[in-house]
Amino acid sequence: MVTLREAGVPEKNIFLDRQSGKDFERPQYKRLIRKIKKDDLLYIKSIDRLGRNYEEILHQWRVLTKEKGADIVVLDMPLLDTRRGKDLMGTFLSDVVLQVLSFVAENERANIRQRQAEGIAAAKAKGIRFGRPPRSLPGNFSPVYRQWKAGEITGAEAARKCNMPLSTFRYRAEIYKKNREC
Fold it and tell me: CA 47, CA 106: separation in Å to the nearest integer?
């Protein structure tokens, strides 16, 4: 954001999504697309801030420059400035640089996901649990479970008596059953 301010972009014209650039289903990006019009100038800090999907970056670039008629300046890559070189050679160079950088951005996304999966697997191997800790069972769970198992009450009734959704009751009943068999 500092880089955009230094480029002279007014605060009201800075669109900042605080989520992954894996796709373009981001609220602020959608707002930007609705607001941008012909001859506007869009500053992007780096191409991977636009997105991390090769095909989508190329598609969105075309939407912004061809359909919307805006110019784009990628601040950390001066070759990606659509204001310059509107001739065939300039367009060709911009397209080549854009394709290379889009590939790099998507490749980085794949590397991030790979490292994340490896980290999760390593944590699980160490016995680290993810998610919030399960709530303790209600005091009446055991007798309600026995009634349900005996067919005296339905699953929905059992869940209601334990004050939990039916899916949760069934899930917890399965765990309860396994623990009793051990």
Answer: 10
Q: Are residues 146 and 56 in the same domain?
A: no
The percentage of the chain sitting over the pLDDT mark of 90, rounded to a whole number, equals 32
Q: What distances in angstroms separate CA 66 from CA 13, 56, 60, one per listed residue?
A: 21, 15, 10
Asked if 111 contacts 81 with a C-beta cutoff of 8 angstroms, the reply is no
CA 113 to chain centre: 11
Q: What DSSP state is assigned to residue 137?
A: P
Please give the structure tokens belonging to residue 15. Answer: 């669109």
Q: Are 75 and 44 in contact (CB under 8 A)?
A: yes
Residues whose CB falls within 8 Å of the CB of residue 4, separated by 6 or more in sequence, listed in order: 14, 43, 45, 75
Sign of CA dihedral 123, 125, 130, 133: negative
Give the predicted TM-score (pTM) of the model. Answer: 0.53
pLDDT tens for 17-61 read: 776 666 778 888 888 889 999 989 988 888 777 777 778 888 888
Residues 95 and 151 in one domain: no
Q: Which of 24-33, 73-82, 160-169 has the highest mean pLDDT?
A: 160-169
Whether 105 maps to a domain, the answer reads: yes
Who's near 61: CB < 8 A, 6+ residues apart? 50, 72, 98
57's tokens: 């970056």
